[in-house]
Amino acid sequence: MAHLLSASCPLNISSCSKNSPNSLKKCFSSLPTSLALQTSVKPFKTLPLNRKNAHKLLSVRATTLQQPTAKTGSGSDQTSGQESRPTRVMVIGGDGYCGWATSLHLSNKNYEVAIVDNLVRRHFDHQLGLDSLTPISSIHDRIRRWRSLTEKDISLYIGDVCDFEFLAEAFTSFKPDAVVHFGEQRSAPYSMIDRSRAVYTQQNNVLGTLNVLFAIKEFGEDCHLVKLGTMGEYGTPNIDIEEGYITITHNGRTDTLPYPKQASSFYHLSKVHDSNNIAFTCKAWGIRATDLNQGVVYGVRTDETAMHEELCNRFDYDGVFGTALNRFCVQAAVGHPLTVYGKGGQTRGYLDIRDTVQCVELAIATPAKRGEMRVFNQFTEQFSVNQLASLVTKAGEKLGIEVKTISVPNPRVEAEEHYYNAKHTKLIELGLQPHLLSDSLLDSLLNVAVQFKDRVDTKQIMPSVSWRKIGVKPKTVSA
Pick the catalytic residue: 87, 102, 209, 230? Predict the structure, then answer.
Protein backbone atom coordinates (compact mmCIF):
# COMPACT_ATOMS: atom_id res chain seq x y z
CA MET A 1 0.00 0.00 0.00
CA ALA A 2 1.55 3.29 -1.02
CA HIS A 3 1.82 5.95 1.60
CA LEU A 4 -0.86 8.55 2.12
CA LEU A 5 0.93 11.24 4.06
CA SER A 6 4.16 11.49 5.97
CA ALA A 7 4.60 14.36 8.34
CA SER A 8 7.58 14.44 10.65
CA CYS A 9 6.46 17.72 12.16
CA PRO A 10 4.71 17.92 15.51
CA LEU A 11 1.62 17.94 13.41
CA ASN A 12 0.40 21.36 12.46
CA ILE A 13 -0.20 19.59 9.18
CA SER A 14 -2.66 17.26 10.82
CA SER A 15 -5.85 19.16 10.10
CA CYS A 16 -6.19 16.74 7.19
CA SER A 17 -8.58 14.27 8.72
CA LYS A 18 -9.73 12.70 5.49
CA ASN A 19 -7.43 10.92 3.11
CA SER A 20 -8.48 12.52 -0.16
CA PRO A 21 -6.65 14.80 -2.60
CA ASN A 22 -8.89 17.79 -1.85
CA SER A 23 -8.57 17.47 1.91
CA LEU A 24 -4.79 17.15 1.63
CA LYS A 25 -4.56 20.24 -0.57
CA LYS A 26 -6.50 22.24 2.01
CA CYS A 27 -3.75 21.43 4.51
CA PHE A 28 -1.12 23.32 2.54
CA SER A 29 -2.38 26.67 3.81
CA SER A 30 -1.94 25.53 7.44
CA LEU A 31 1.56 24.10 7.09
CA PRO A 32 4.11 25.62 9.49
CA THR A 33 6.76 27.76 7.83
CA SER A 34 9.51 25.53 9.25
CA LEU A 35 8.68 22.75 6.82
CA ALA A 36 10.45 21.82 3.62
CA LEU A 37 7.88 20.25 1.31
CA GLN A 38 7.96 17.82 -1.54
CA THR A 39 4.82 16.67 -3.27
CA SER A 40 4.27 13.77 -5.57
CA VAL A 41 1.47 11.66 -6.93
CA LYS A 42 1.63 7.97 -6.09
CA PRO A 43 -0.84 5.09 -6.46
CA PHE A 44 -2.80 4.18 -3.36
CA LYS A 45 -3.89 0.56 -3.19
CA THR A 46 -6.70 -0.48 -0.92
CA LEU A 47 -6.91 -3.83 0.80
CA PRO A 48 -6.82 -6.98 -1.30
CA LEU A 49 -10.53 -7.06 -2.08
CA ASN A 50 -10.34 -3.68 -3.83
CA ARG A 51 -7.02 -3.80 -5.64
CA LYS A 52 -8.72 -3.36 -9.04
CA ASN A 53 -9.92 0.07 -7.98
CA ALA A 54 -6.54 1.59 -7.15
CA HIS A 55 -6.58 5.35 -7.64
CA LYS A 56 -4.15 8.24 -7.49
CA LEU A 57 -3.68 10.15 -4.29
CA LEU A 58 -1.55 13.17 -3.59
CA SER A 59 1.15 12.43 -1.05
CA VAL A 60 2.87 14.99 1.12
CA ARG A 61 6.31 14.55 2.61
CA ALA A 62 7.22 17.05 5.27
CA THR A 63 10.45 17.32 7.18
CA THR A 64 10.77 19.43 10.29
CA LEU A 65 13.74 21.76 10.10
CA GLN A 66 13.73 22.62 13.79
CA GLN A 67 12.22 20.69 16.68
CA PRO A 68 11.68 22.07 20.19
CA THR A 69 14.30 20.92 22.66
CA ALA A 70 12.93 17.94 24.56
CA LYS A 71 13.30 17.57 28.28
CA THR A 72 15.79 14.99 29.50
CA GLY A 73 14.84 12.17 31.82
CA SER A 74 14.59 8.41 31.79
CA GLY A 75 14.57 8.50 27.99
CA SER A 76 17.84 10.38 27.71
CA ASP A 77 20.99 9.06 26.07
CA GLN A 78 23.83 10.36 28.21
CA THR A 79 27.39 10.12 26.98
CA SER A 80 30.33 11.03 29.18
CA GLY A 81 31.43 14.60 28.57
CA GLN A 82 28.55 15.34 26.23
CA GLU A 83 25.18 16.97 26.71
CA SER A 84 22.45 14.36 27.04
CA ARG A 85 19.84 14.09 24.35
CA PRO A 86 16.56 12.19 24.27
CA THR A 87 16.66 8.66 22.91
CA ARG A 88 14.78 8.65 19.61
CA VAL A 89 12.23 5.86 19.34
CA MET A 90 10.24 5.14 16.18
CA VAL A 91 6.99 3.33 16.98
CA ILE A 92 5.71 1.56 13.88
CA GLY A 93 1.99 0.95 14.27
CA GLY A 94 1.74 3.72 16.85
CA ASP A 95 -1.96 4.37 16.17
CA GLY A 96 -2.97 0.83 17.21
CA TYR A 97 -3.99 -0.72 20.52
CA CYS A 98 -0.52 -1.49 21.88
CA GLY A 99 1.27 1.13 19.78
CA TRP A 100 -0.71 4.14 20.96
CA ALA A 101 -0.34 3.29 24.65
CA THR A 102 3.38 2.66 24.12
CA SER A 103 3.93 5.91 22.22
CA LEU A 104 2.39 7.99 25.00
CA HIS A 105 4.23 6.09 27.73
CA LEU A 106 7.61 6.60 26.06
CA SER A 107 6.91 10.25 25.35
CA ASN A 108 5.91 10.74 28.97
CA LYS A 109 9.24 9.18 29.97
CA ASN A 110 11.03 11.82 27.87
CA TYR A 111 11.89 9.68 24.88
CA GLU A 112 11.66 11.48 21.57
CA VAL A 113 8.90 9.57 19.79
CA ALA A 114 7.84 9.29 16.17
CA ILE A 115 4.79 7.30 15.11
CA VAL A 116 4.82 5.53 11.75
CA ASP A 117 1.42 4.20 10.72
CA ASN A 118 -0.67 3.79 7.58
CA LEU A 119 -3.90 3.89 9.64
CA VAL A 120 -5.04 0.64 8.04
CA ARG A 121 -6.37 -0.71 11.35
CA ARG A 122 -9.09 1.96 11.18
CA HIS A 123 -9.79 0.87 7.61
CA PHE A 124 -10.32 -2.72 8.78
CA ASP A 125 -13.15 -1.48 11.00
CA HIS A 126 -14.83 0.27 8.07
CA GLN A 127 -14.27 -2.76 5.85
CA LEU A 128 -15.80 -5.25 8.29
CA GLY A 129 -18.43 -3.01 9.86
CA LEU A 130 -16.72 -3.02 13.26
CA ASP A 131 -16.04 -0.31 15.81
CA SER A 132 -14.15 0.17 19.04
CA LEU A 133 -16.22 0.01 22.21
CA THR A 134 -14.55 3.23 23.31
CA PRO A 135 -14.73 6.26 21.00
CA ILE A 136 -11.26 6.97 19.59
CA SER A 137 -10.12 10.28 18.17
CA SER A 138 -8.17 10.70 14.95
CA ILE A 139 -4.41 10.30 15.24
CA HIS A 140 -4.05 14.01 14.51
CA ASP A 141 -6.38 15.03 17.35
CA ARG A 142 -4.71 12.56 19.67
CA ILE A 143 -1.26 14.02 19.09
CA ARG A 144 -2.48 17.61 19.34
CA ARG A 145 -4.20 16.85 22.65
CA TRP A 146 -1.07 15.14 24.00
CA ARG A 147 1.02 18.19 23.19
CA SER A 148 -1.50 20.56 24.75
CA LEU A 149 -1.51 18.53 27.98
CA THR A 150 2.22 17.77 28.29
CA GLU A 151 4.08 20.18 25.99
CA LYS A 152 5.68 17.08 24.48
CA ASP A 153 5.78 16.51 20.74
CA ILE A 154 5.19 13.24 18.92
CA SER A 155 6.23 13.24 15.28
CA LEU A 156 4.01 11.51 12.76
CA TYR A 157 4.79 9.72 9.51
CA ILE A 158 1.69 8.40 7.77
CA GLY A 159 2.61 5.69 5.31
CA ASP A 160 3.23 2.00 4.77
CA VAL A 161 6.45 0.26 5.81
CA CYS A 162 5.94 -2.08 2.84
CA ASP A 163 6.79 1.00 0.73
CA PHE A 164 10.56 1.09 1.24
CA GLU A 165 10.94 4.56 -0.29
CA PHE A 166 8.61 5.95 2.37
CA LEU A 167 10.29 3.99 5.16
CA ALA A 168 13.76 5.08 4.05
CA GLU A 169 12.67 8.71 4.15
CA ALA A 170 11.21 8.29 7.63
CA PHE A 171 14.45 6.67 8.86
CA THR A 172 16.76 9.28 7.39
CA SER A 173 14.56 12.09 8.66
CA PHE A 174 14.00 10.89 12.23
CA LYS A 175 17.24 8.87 12.75
CA PRO A 176 15.88 6.49 15.42
CA ASP A 177 18.01 4.93 18.13
CA ALA A 178 15.39 2.21 18.56
CA VAL A 179 12.48 0.97 16.49
CA VAL A 180 9.46 -0.58 18.18
CA HIS A 181 7.66 -2.60 15.54
CA PHE A 182 3.93 -3.09 16.19
CA GLY A 183 3.00 -2.39 12.56
CA GLU A 184 1.52 -5.73 11.55
CA GLN A 185 -1.91 -7.20 10.91
CA ARG A 186 -2.34 -8.68 14.37
CA SER A 187 -5.50 -10.78 14.24
CA ALA A 188 -5.49 -14.55 13.75
CA PRO A 189 -9.20 -14.60 12.77
CA TYR A 190 -8.65 -11.82 10.21
CA SER A 191 -5.93 -13.90 8.57
CA MET A 192 -8.36 -16.83 8.34
CA ILE A 193 -11.34 -15.03 6.74
CA ASP A 194 -10.39 -15.88 3.16
CA ARG A 195 -7.43 -16.29 0.82
CA SER A 196 -7.00 -12.57 0.16
CA ARG A 197 -6.75 -11.73 3.88
CA ALA A 198 -4.33 -14.61 4.45
CA VAL A 199 -2.12 -13.33 1.62
CA TYR A 200 -2.42 -9.73 2.81
CA THR A 201 -1.43 -10.71 6.36
CA GLN A 202 1.71 -12.53 5.29
CA GLN A 203 2.73 -9.95 2.70
CA ASN A 204 2.16 -7.02 5.04
CA ASN A 205 3.80 -8.60 8.07
CA VAL A 206 6.76 -10.43 6.54
CA LEU A 207 7.67 -7.92 3.84
CA GLY A 208 7.15 -4.98 6.18
CA THR A 209 9.52 -6.47 8.73
CA LEU A 210 12.06 -7.22 5.99
CA ASN A 211 11.92 -3.57 4.96
CA VAL A 212 12.50 -2.49 8.55
CA LEU A 213 15.54 -4.77 8.76
CA PHE A 214 16.97 -3.37 5.53
CA ALA A 215 16.30 0.18 6.73
CA ILE A 216 18.24 -0.48 9.93
CA LYS A 217 21.12 -1.99 7.95
CA GLU A 218 21.31 0.93 5.51
CA PHE A 219 20.44 3.94 7.65
CA GLY A 220 21.01 3.06 11.31
CA GLU A 221 23.19 0.01 11.82
CA ASP A 222 23.37 0.58 15.58
CA CYS A 223 19.58 0.98 15.89
CA HIS A 224 17.92 -1.51 18.23
CA LEU A 225 14.86 -3.36 16.87
CA VAL A 226 12.20 -4.17 19.48
CA LYS A 227 9.80 -6.42 17.62
CA LEU A 228 6.41 -7.55 18.88
CA GLY A 229 6.15 -11.29 18.45
CA THR A 230 3.56 -13.61 19.95
CA MET A 231 3.43 -16.55 22.34
CA GLY A 232 1.30 -18.16 19.64
CA GLU A 233 4.49 -18.97 17.73
CA TYR A 234 5.15 -21.79 20.19
CA GLY A 235 1.74 -23.43 20.06
CA THR A 236 0.87 -25.71 22.97
CA PRO A 237 3.66 -28.30 23.25
CA ASN A 238 3.56 -31.02 25.90
CA ILE A 239 6.79 -29.68 27.44
CA ASP A 240 7.72 -26.41 29.15
CA ILE A 241 8.04 -23.42 26.82
CA GLU A 242 11.42 -21.72 27.19
CA GLU A 243 12.18 -18.10 26.28
CA GLY A 244 13.10 -18.38 22.64
CA TYR A 245 15.77 -21.08 22.86
CA ILE A 246 16.04 -24.63 24.15
CA THR A 247 19.11 -26.69 24.96
CA ILE A 248 18.77 -30.26 23.78
CA THR A 249 20.94 -33.35 23.76
CA HIS A 250 20.53 -35.67 20.78
CA ASN A 251 22.59 -38.78 20.06
CA GLY A 252 25.16 -37.69 22.60
CA ARG A 253 25.61 -34.13 21.30
CA THR A 254 24.22 -30.97 22.91
CA ASP A 255 23.23 -27.66 21.32
CA THR A 256 21.09 -24.61 22.08
CA LEU A 257 18.57 -24.07 19.30
CA PRO A 258 15.54 -21.88 18.59
CA TYR A 259 12.52 -23.28 20.40
CA PRO A 260 10.29 -25.30 17.99
CA LYS A 261 7.38 -23.34 16.50
CA GLN A 262 3.85 -24.68 16.04
CA ALA A 263 1.88 -21.73 14.70
CA SER A 264 -1.89 -22.09 14.50
CA SER A 265 -2.97 -19.51 11.89
CA PHE A 266 -1.60 -17.63 8.89
CA TYR A 267 -1.11 -14.67 11.24
CA HIS A 268 0.96 -16.72 13.69
CA LEU A 269 2.94 -18.18 10.80
CA SER A 270 3.83 -14.65 9.66
CA LYS A 271 5.31 -14.04 13.10
CA VAL A 272 7.39 -17.22 12.82
CA HIS A 273 8.73 -16.03 9.46
CA ASP A 274 9.55 -12.66 11.06
CA SER A 275 11.50 -14.34 13.86
CA ASN A 276 13.54 -16.38 11.38
CA ASN A 277 14.32 -13.32 9.25
CA ILE A 278 15.35 -11.29 12.29
CA ALA A 279 17.57 -14.09 13.59
CA PHE A 280 19.28 -14.39 10.22
CA THR A 281 19.97 -10.65 9.91
CA CYS A 282 21.33 -10.49 13.45
CA LYS A 283 23.80 -13.20 12.49
CA ALA A 284 24.61 -11.89 8.99
CA TRP A 285 24.51 -8.12 9.47
CA GLY A 286 25.04 -7.60 13.19
CA ILE A 287 21.52 -6.26 13.77
CA ARG A 288 20.62 -5.91 17.45
CA ALA A 289 17.08 -7.16 18.15
CA THR A 290 14.70 -8.06 20.96
CA ASP A 291 11.75 -10.27 20.03
CA LEU A 292 8.92 -9.81 22.53
CA ASN A 293 6.72 -12.89 22.38
CA GLN A 294 3.66 -11.30 23.88
CA GLY A 295 0.71 -13.09 25.44
CA VAL A 296 -2.90 -11.98 25.23
CA VAL A 297 -3.30 -8.33 26.28
CA TYR A 298 -6.25 -7.02 28.26
CA GLY A 299 -7.26 -3.63 29.60
CA VAL A 300 -7.71 -0.25 28.00
CA ARG A 301 -6.27 2.40 30.31
CA THR A 302 -2.73 3.44 31.07
CA ASP A 303 -1.67 6.47 33.09
CA GLU A 304 -1.30 8.44 29.87
CA THR A 305 -4.44 7.36 27.99
CA ALA A 306 -6.50 8.19 31.08
CA MET A 307 -5.39 11.84 31.02
CA HIS A 308 -8.06 12.97 28.54
CA GLU A 309 -10.91 11.41 26.55
CA GLU A 310 -9.16 12.28 23.28
CA LEU A 311 -6.25 10.06 24.36
CA CYS A 312 -8.51 7.07 24.98
CA ASN A 313 -7.30 3.78 23.54
CA ARG A 314 -9.36 1.44 21.40
CA PHE A 315 -11.25 -1.47 23.00
CA ASP A 316 -12.08 -4.32 20.62
CA TYR A 317 -14.79 -6.79 21.60
CA ASP A 318 -15.76 -8.40 18.29
CA GLY A 319 -14.95 -11.92 17.16
CA VAL A 320 -12.19 -10.79 14.80
CA PHE A 321 -10.02 -8.39 16.81
CA GLY A 322 -11.30 -8.71 20.36
CA THR A 323 -9.19 -10.61 22.91
CA ALA A 324 -10.72 -13.05 25.39
CA LEU A 325 -10.92 -11.05 28.63
CA ASN A 326 -11.95 -7.79 26.97
CA ARG A 327 -14.64 -9.65 25.02
CA PHE A 328 -15.97 -11.39 28.12
CA CYS A 329 -16.30 -8.10 29.99
CA VAL A 330 -18.33 -6.56 27.17
CA GLN A 331 -20.51 -9.65 26.86
CA ALA A 332 -21.24 -9.51 30.59
CA ALA A 333 -22.06 -5.80 30.42
CA VAL A 334 -24.71 -6.26 27.74
CA GLY A 335 -26.22 -9.44 29.18
CA HIS A 336 -24.82 -11.77 26.51
CA PRO A 337 -23.59 -15.18 27.73
CA LEU A 338 -19.82 -15.50 27.78
CA THR A 339 -18.76 -17.35 24.64
CA VAL A 340 -16.35 -20.12 25.62
CA TYR A 341 -14.92 -21.89 22.59
CA GLY A 342 -15.29 -25.65 22.89
CA LYS A 343 -14.20 -27.17 26.21
CA GLY A 344 -12.57 -23.93 27.40
CA GLY A 345 -9.33 -25.51 28.58
CA GLN A 346 -7.25 -23.45 26.16
CA THR A 347 -4.53 -21.90 28.35
CA ARG A 348 -2.45 -18.88 27.40
CA GLY A 349 -0.26 -16.20 28.95
CA TYR A 350 -1.97 -12.86 29.68
CA LEU A 351 -0.83 -9.37 30.63
CA ASP A 352 -2.23 -5.94 31.37
CA ILE A 353 -1.62 -3.29 28.70
CA ARG A 354 0.17 -1.27 31.38
CA ASP A 355 2.73 -4.07 31.45
CA THR A 356 3.03 -4.07 27.66
CA VAL A 357 4.30 -0.48 27.71
CA GLN A 358 6.54 -1.23 30.69
CA CYS A 359 8.13 -4.22 28.94
CA VAL A 360 8.85 -2.23 25.79
CA GLU A 361 10.53 0.51 27.80
CA LEU A 362 12.67 -2.03 29.65
CA ALA A 363 13.75 -3.58 26.35
CA ILE A 364 14.73 -0.17 24.95
CA ALA A 365 16.59 0.87 28.10
CA THR A 366 18.71 -2.31 28.08
CA PRO A 367 19.30 -2.98 24.37
CA ALA A 368 20.54 -6.19 22.84
CA LYS A 369 24.19 -6.39 21.80
CA ARG A 370 25.24 -6.09 18.17
CA GLY A 371 24.48 -9.37 16.45
CA GLU A 372 22.27 -10.58 19.30
CA MET A 373 18.64 -11.64 19.01
CA ARG A 374 17.07 -11.80 22.43
CA VAL A 375 13.69 -13.42 22.98
CA PHE A 376 11.54 -12.46 25.96
CA ASN A 377 8.24 -14.15 26.74
CA GLN A 378 6.09 -11.14 27.54
CA PHE A 379 3.23 -12.09 29.86
CA THR A 380 2.62 -12.11 33.60
CA GLU A 381 0.03 -14.83 34.33
CA GLN A 382 -1.50 -17.93 32.77
CA PHE A 383 -5.24 -18.58 32.58
CA SER A 384 -7.52 -21.00 30.80
CA VAL A 385 -10.58 -19.63 29.04
CA ASN A 386 -12.77 -21.29 31.67
CA GLN A 387 -10.81 -19.58 34.45
CA LEU A 388 -11.31 -16.19 32.80
CA ALA A 389 -15.04 -16.84 32.45
CA SER A 390 -15.24 -17.74 36.13
CA LEU A 391 -13.39 -14.57 37.16
CA VAL A 392 -15.67 -12.36 35.06
CA THR A 393 -18.75 -14.12 36.44
CA LYS A 394 -17.67 -13.42 40.03
CA ALA A 395 -16.76 -9.81 39.24
CA GLY A 396 -20.14 -9.31 37.59
CA GLU A 397 -21.96 -10.63 40.65
CA LYS A 398 -20.22 -8.01 42.81
CA LEU A 399 -21.58 -5.31 40.51
CA GLY A 400 -25.07 -6.79 40.44
CA ILE A 401 -24.67 -8.26 36.93
CA GLU A 402 -25.93 -11.78 36.32
CA VAL A 403 -23.38 -13.47 34.07
CA LYS A 404 -24.00 -16.73 32.22
CA THR A 405 -21.60 -18.83 30.17
CA ILE A 406 -22.22 -20.94 27.08
CA SER A 407 -19.98 -23.27 25.12
CA VAL A 408 -19.94 -22.52 21.40
CA PRO A 409 -18.42 -24.65 18.65
CA ASN A 410 -14.74 -23.80 18.43
CA PRO A 411 -14.06 -21.98 15.14
CA ARG A 412 -10.33 -22.59 15.52
CA VAL A 413 -8.19 -25.68 15.06
CA GLU A 414 -6.52 -26.03 18.45
CA ALA A 415 -6.22 -28.29 21.47
CA GLU A 416 -9.00 -27.50 23.93
CA GLU A 417 -7.33 -29.29 26.84
CA HIS A 418 -3.54 -29.36 27.09
CA TYR A 419 -0.41 -28.90 29.18
CA TYR A 420 0.90 -25.32 29.27
CA ASN A 421 3.81 -23.97 31.27
CA ALA A 422 5.73 -21.09 29.71
CA LYS A 423 8.79 -19.46 31.27
CA HIS A 424 8.74 -15.67 31.64
CA THR A 425 11.58 -14.56 33.89
CA LYS A 426 13.79 -12.34 31.73
CA LEU A 427 11.62 -9.21 31.86
CA ILE A 428 11.14 -9.67 35.61
CA GLU A 429 14.93 -9.76 35.93
CA LEU A 430 15.11 -6.46 34.01
CA GLY A 431 12.75 -4.86 36.52
CA LEU A 432 9.20 -5.52 35.32
CA GLN A 433 6.70 -4.85 38.09
CA PRO A 434 3.59 -6.65 36.87
CA HIS A 435 0.00 -5.56 37.30
CA LEU A 436 -1.62 -8.88 38.08
CA LEU A 437 -5.27 -9.50 37.33
CA SER A 438 -7.17 -8.41 40.41
CA ASP A 439 -10.78 -7.92 41.46
CA SER A 440 -10.31 -4.15 41.23
CA LEU A 441 -9.01 -4.37 37.66
CA LEU A 442 -11.87 -6.61 36.61
CA ASP A 443 -14.29 -4.15 38.22
CA SER A 444 -12.65 -1.35 36.24
CA LEU A 445 -12.89 -3.26 32.96
CA LEU A 446 -16.51 -4.14 33.58
CA ASN A 447 -17.30 -0.52 34.45
CA VAL A 448 -15.75 0.62 31.16
CA ALA A 449 -17.87 -1.95 29.33
CA VAL A 450 -21.01 -0.80 31.16
CA GLN A 451 -20.19 2.86 30.50
CA PHE A 452 -20.08 2.31 26.73
CA LYS A 453 -22.52 -0.60 26.38
CA ASP A 454 -24.81 1.49 24.17
CA ARG A 455 -22.05 1.36 21.54
CA VAL A 456 -22.00 -2.46 21.48
CA ASP A 457 -23.17 -4.13 18.27
CA THR A 458 -24.32 -7.51 19.57
CA LYS A 459 -24.18 -8.97 16.05
CA GLN A 460 -20.38 -8.76 16.28
CA ILE A 461 -20.09 -10.87 19.43
CA MET A 462 -20.39 -14.41 18.06
CA PRO A 463 -17.43 -15.81 16.09
CA SER A 464 -17.94 -15.65 12.32
CA VAL A 465 -14.57 -16.89 11.02
CA SER A 466 -13.90 -20.63 10.68
CA TRP A 467 -10.38 -22.06 10.38
CA ARG A 468 -11.68 -25.05 8.41
CA LYS A 469 -14.03 -23.19 6.08
CA ILE A 470 -11.57 -20.58 4.81
CA GLY A 471 -11.67 -20.53 1.02
CA VAL A 472 -10.49 -18.81 -2.13
CA LYS A 473 -13.65 -16.80 -2.67
CA PRO A 474 -13.51 -13.37 -0.97
CA LYS A 475 -15.75 -13.41 2.07
CA THR A 476 -17.77 -10.48 3.30
CA VAL A 477 -18.17 -10.56 7.07
CA SER A 478 -21.77 -9.58 7.63
CA ALA A 479 -22.37 -6.43 9.66
Answer: 230
